[in-house]
Amino acid sequence: MTIRRRADRVGRGWLAFLLTLAPVASYGPLAAQAQDTALADAREWTSEEDHRHMMEQLGIRALRPGPSGTESAPNAANYDEALANPDPDFPGVLTLKDGRTVGSAHMWWKERRSQIVEDYEREVYGRIPAGVPKVTWSVAETASGTVGGVPVVGKHVVGRASNAAFPAITV
Question: What is the pLDDT of residue 85?
Answer without folding.
Answer: 78
